[in-house]
## 1
Amino acid sequence: MAAKSMTLLWGSGSCPCWRAMIALEEKNLQGYNHKLLSFDKMEHKSQQVLDINPRGQLPTFKHGDTVVNESYAICLYLESHFKSQGNQLIPDGPEEQALMYQRMFEGLTFYEKLGSVIYYDWYVPEGERHDSALKRNKDGLVVELGLWEGYLSKGSGSFLAGKSFSLADVVVFPTVAFLFRFGLSAGRYPKLEEYYALLKDRPSIKASWPPHWLEGPEEELLLKDI
Amino acid sequence: MTSSGFPGCQSAPAVPAHMAKSMSLLWGAGSPPCWRVMITLEEKRLQGYKRKLLSFQKGEHKSQEVLEVNPRGQLPAFRHGDVVVNESTAACLYLENRFQSQGNRLIPDSPAEQALVFQRMMEGLTLTDRLNSVIYYDLLVPEEERHDSALKRSKETLSTELQLWEGYLQNVAAGSYLAGPFSLADVVVYPNVAFAFRFGLSAGRFPKLAKYYSLLKERPSIKASWPPQWMSSRQGYDVLKDL
């Protein structure tokens, strides 16, 4: 079975890793080999990762002899290779397809804006941090959230590319889940909350939910006031 | 229609003229993302699309005309009839999938080859970010938040990144680019590479990137879409010369 020749190296609490895992579930590729590594222990920079991904980043993925790094590349590869298996993740209609691709790549900006706030201290050494910078990043995230709230209000269906779940949802849902995990107000962002509630129990998403979110301490609610 | 004689170009059946005419691109000069879409349109034999050059300096990317197509006020802003596709990589993927059998194939058939195209394409976006964080440091960071240490770190990160690409291009030759034959990976990445040399990257220190740059400079789709003001003036800035 194809899944048995696949290996995913991943970390818990990583949006990019989660995207790949949702895609694998959607394409009925459960049973893939996987290894959970610790970012805190710097295992993403270990030799076993560097051998497959010289960038020392997760997710890192292999299917037989084929290496595919970069979460979006993994998702595009899996949908292409296993098109006729599991759920179809790229719609046939040109309008939905175009919207899907656009939202996917907007999703990268969405993730960056999120990271610029919740990972501010991780990215910026202490001597270079400024309250003004973090404030600007929060303002940027608020503008971004407004855009997505709008997309979900005016869309022709419940999903990001319309009436069907697609690769846009695969890559963006983890970002939305992280927003609420870090305290985003459902009252202020009702459409995002609706989207989150719609998808959090989807089998592929439930199966790949970050394990450390199921137990263990809550995060610091960095987004509760935005 | 005869081949141009350039490796990899195929002749194509006549394209209905209206196909490209229902496309419009709002673009800005010297923007790698805009350039990617223009290369793709050329590769897919969609010349004849409507286009309008806007000025970033005059803030025209935030004009109503752009905001109606792209609420982010960013270029490229692309339309095909009623279908809007913003985000350069999205527009490229849309065009390749919609016009797969026309012009040059930009995504190979075999999944194993596709894997490398997709991976290098996405890595190309990291390269873009790292280039921008150096070249546009002063634009992105307000004066009171700038630190020499931050710019230095961005330059080191960029240097490491460029060395990765130098490695990816170890065997670069005519017809053998980032993922073998010219592909979407090259569409996304080449504008960044050209940008880097425009901003002073040393060909001596990055000989494979330099070879990649000069081999593809002559590709018809790239030549046809070369940023206009790069042709009229000599080398611009040299912020990357010490990398």
## 2
Amino acid sequence: MDAIASGALVTLTELNQSSPYFKQGASLRVTGKLVDYNLVTAMAVIVDGAASIQVDTSLLTIHFRVGSLYQFIGELNIEPNGEGTLRARVGRIVDGLDMNLYQQSLQLLREHLPELTREGSS
Amino acid sequence: MDVTRRSHAKLLALDLLSLSTSRGCFYRGEMLVSRVETVGVVVSRSVKPGKLLFVVDDGTGCIPCVIWLNHETSPYYAKHSLPSVRVKAQLSRDFASLAQLGVVARVRGEVKGYKGSNEITVSDVVLETDPNAQLLHWVECVQLARNCYNKLSKNGV
């Protein structure tokens, strides 16, 4: 199987134009509440706090329900106007996800990953 | 001490993919790792003759996994009793049907090397429907690494 890039864990509030994650083609995993979905274009908008992102869901076959929490993994496409759109390759509904715990766990993970490199698995 | 050989080590993908090999065995530092457990999203799935290949993304990396589906034709199982082979084959087919694109799965199995990369030869798959299961796995991996595996890695087990 061809190598697949892991979706980097990033919150929407971190995903601004000055973020190191905001790169053309970057593989990301984003989570947010669905506030808008266009059946014709298959474009979804998810929000997390004051931040939002458009998600191209044309590759997905999941059911969409405005107001529910969703998580998508896909690649970032940066439009000519500088806005980012995530082209999702997988997505799931994550109603019940504790977003505070999610952010704390993410922080813990980010603190730990450099330890792995320092400890060295070899 | 044989604890690491018989239990499934909960490892982040970054950790699992970085395991070193020596004489066919896998090591995390000095700690022998034989069986592993991961939780992540199935991001790729490919049916091949006699096996299912899929990839689990846990947020720190992508782990290739394989479920063998050739029990009834494999010479390895020829010496096993037919009813037990059939049970094993059915179990493998059931696990393979669970590993669909986009689901979060808890995958356990033996770590193997294939073409220079580490992968999991799957022994079981469980679907995780609670969205907080992934967070729990991250926290458990970090806690185990800090409080157990790093100590075993230093002392050699």
